[in-house]
Amino acid sequence: MSEVSTALLTSKTYSITEAAHLARTSGSNIRHWLYGQDYPGHSMKPVFDPDRDTSARLSFVDLAEVIVVATYRRKGGKGIPIDRFRRARSFAKIRFGVDHLYATEEFSIEGGHIMHEFELEHPGPGKLALDLDGVWALPFQVQDVLQMFEFQTGGLASKWFPRGKEIPIVLDPRLGAGRPVIAGSNVRLEVLVARWKAKWTIEEIAEDFEIDTATVRLLSKKLREAVFRRR
Fold it and tell me: Could you read off the pLDDT of 27-49 as tens digits, one per residue?
């Protein structure tokens, strides 16, 4: 499949509620990161785009950045003030010419170097880069989440595999209106979930969607595991 157009990657597709569900964070967090806060005794600039219209939805690129930041803060970066992510993003745009920092192939490859340079110029709490035998690398939690994305050649994130690339579920702006679909098809995951809840058999689902039975069996197993983990 050809590369995704920039217009499709930056089209405002997702509501804050949808983005919060996908990124496994709260809607209030996303609102603060997108629009900032200005309360008595507390003020915070937006982490991402400072001039964003407060009625705007999120694009795929916006969502990718939110996923990276939210995952790192959830899995080990809670001690890092959210404002440091904003400042690191602005630093990379000025110093390295990288916009949408957290959703770029350059960040996935050179992020450790970029963050190390940022920390040298702007010391602060928490570690955004690790020294691995003289090579600067991103924290392992960030590396893990970036491995779930595919990137345009030298450019922006264009696909996201929310359960890892070994599980055939993908968010591709060209498919399923940008919602999770079964990889290799245009079948939205929510449709498969509805069939599963309606007690369709694996064979019936596979035949209805014209999808390999082994794929449906794997997805059904992962969906059941996700349900049990939430209990």
Answer: 999 999 999 887 777 788 899 88
How many C-beta atoms lie closer than 10 Å to residue 101's C-beta?
A: 22
Burial environment of residue 7 by CB neighbours within 10 A (0 to 12, 13 to 18, 19 or more):
exposed
Reading the block at residue 143, the tokens are 């590396």
This prediction's pTM: 0.90
Between CA 71 and CA 221 the distance in angstroms is 24
Q: Which residue stretches of the chain are H helix?
A: 6-10, 16-23, 27-35, 60-74, 82-95, 105-121, 140-146, 189-197, 202-209, 213-230
- Contact, 139 vs 130, CB < 8 A? yes
Which amino acid is it at 125?
P
Residue 109 CA to residue 31 CA, distance in Å, equals 29
Cα 90 to Cα 95: distance, rounded to the nearest angstrom = 9
pLDDT at 231: 38
Domain ranges of the chain: 6-154
